[in-house]
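Quick check before the chapter quiz. The format below is the same one you will see on the exam, so make sure you can read both the input and the output lines.
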Amino acid sequence: MLTDIQIAQSATLLPISTIAEKAGIPAEAVEPYGRYKAKIDPNCISGKGGKLILVTAITPTPAGEGKTTTTIGLADALCRLGKRAIAALREPSLGPVFGIKGGAAGGGYAQVVPMEDINLHFTGDFHAIGTANNLLAAMIDNHIHQGNELGFALDRIVWKRCVDMNDRALRKVTVGLGGKANGVPREDGYDITVASEVMAILCLASDLGDLRERLGRVIVGYTADDRPITAKDLKANGAMAALLKDAIRPNLVQTLEHTPVLIHGGPFANIAHGCNSVIATQLARKLGDYVVTEAGFGADLGAEKFFDIKCRMADLRPAAAVLVATIRALKYHGGVGKEDLTTENIAALIAGFPNLLRHAENLSNVYGLPCVVAINRFPSDTEAELSLLHELCAAHGLETVISEVWAKGGEGGTALAEQVIALCERQNTFRFCYSSDSSIEEKLNAIARNIYHADSVIFTESAHAELNRLKALGFGSLPVCVAKTQYSFSDDPKKRGVPSGFRITVRKLRVAAGAGFVIALTGSIMTMPGLPKHPAAEQIDVDENGNISGLF
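Here is the expected output.
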């Protein structure tokens, strides 16, 4: 059996100019980055709004669910049915690629290519975002070194440096050591680039001008009397925007079946808002009658933020949702260990099914969207298990389709595509989980009760003090972005399935004024991950001809 990278490397790619022409992109809007990648200028393109389809998933497990693979395969299948379809995806972060999760370019015969480029440096967007972030950090410390005219309180600087790598040693650092010439000593830290507010801003901005204005609103620290200091106060936002003038343009690539794909931006969904850029999504809607996009991790994280943050800010109205599930993952939620997931286990499947049901009911009942369950089939799935899952879904009124896009590409997703087309023709009553007029506490409790099914939200003493501070500063009406473990509806990653009788503990609040939301950190979630004992980097290599191996 071929590996993902072997399948990708054996594919015949079309020139990116051909893919652009297929997508209806004029030549003057295309800036090639080699033969198979390009930046697209959205200002050169006009068109109507295609139907937006969100692909999301049940609560993630070590077994994997195949959300990106399903997204790509669905776009290919729609094209096979004669529809003008395009996918809009996030860019992979180097942290997971070299850590534990691996790449994010799909799998099997449902991949975007060139897979190696997309998973590694791609077109340099993340480097530009990290550089803009760190320019601002450098300007903060330089300002303090040069006299601190703005009056930074050294213990109230909230802007961190960033790097796109899982590096736990950088979570807390001390800068400015070595004497007066090296700056003023203070405690600092690093976030992973995909958790940076600059990433969020790039993904939520409507154009370069909006990007520059949002960067100016970023709060980097406070004075001793609690006055916020912004990037604009430091006169940094213009230079930051200059660094991002190319990164703000979406990237065009292709699937193995030559379906056009826009890949742009990549905030994590467990610690950020988890969606590709608004600019790429809006561009895709101009180009395609059907736009297939995804949101990170499970529907309680990625989908919630896609709806309540991205759709609210960009005035998007999705037409339908696809909920990806696997037999293996459901058995895991039913209590089976990872090593036994390939063994038939009807009892565990029944025990794990409520996790799927809760996500599906959230999509339909909370957000008012028609939804189809896509069973991402694995070779170890038995007919008895597949039949039972169909019966369980049917008993609860859930429409279900088996997806075989990993093994068969678009051909394995035609049944799913037909169901999605039908769903898009239905009238839906899309709505948000909470009102914009609600307070921060009300918004958090709405998410906790309606999406996580928690009893309530509680705040630590320091988080409650920050809550009052944010209200006093005028940020009480912003949407909320919950940083929470992806492995559970709760804030405890060990609670599988559908936990009940729990409360969500908010230990820290902070405002992302440029992005336009308040971040609530819950449980033990961190904004800088660490590498596992045996990181994927140990298996990645390159030969003397530049051929990469070990990516997955």
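If your answer matched, good. The CA atoms of residues 369 and 503 lie 27 Å apart.
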